[in-house]
Every structure is written in C-alpha cells, then in structure tokens.
Amino acid sequence: MPRKHYSHTLQFKQTLIPIMLTLGAIGLVSAVIPFMVTPDSALASMREQTGLIGAMAGVGVIFLAFAVMNMLVVKSALQAAKSQ
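Now predict its structure.
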C-alpha cells in the first residue's frame, strides 16, 4: 500500500484547523477595524478602500468556511477510526 502524502494525513488536517480559524478571524477583524477607530486614526483612511475591506472580509469568510469543512472531515475520520 503506497504511503499517503503528508497533506492528506489526519495530523496535517488537525494542524490546519487553528491556523485557518486564526486567519479567518484576522481577515474579518481587519475589515471591521477601520470603522471602529476614531476619524483621526491612521486606520480610518482605510474606510475609503472598499475593495480592500471587501477582499479582507471575503478572505476571512473563506478561511472560516474551510476551517469548518476541515473540522467536519477530521471529525468523520476520527469517528470512522474509532468504530474500526
């Protein structure tokens, strides 16, 4: 039986979950921060960059979605291994 590539192992998928959750949270927070700071803050100038804010929010949502999908895959793999 051929060996699995490391990226297909359960250990690798479990490692990616917190990384994707962190990147998703950073993307969403980065998109919201320009609207929460005072107008004289340096980050307030990002309010005019709607494309950048939309991209950060979109990337954040995508990372969170991949993290949830990865969690479901890991959960089903662990349950399958447990039942064997």
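The chain has a mean pLDDT of 92.
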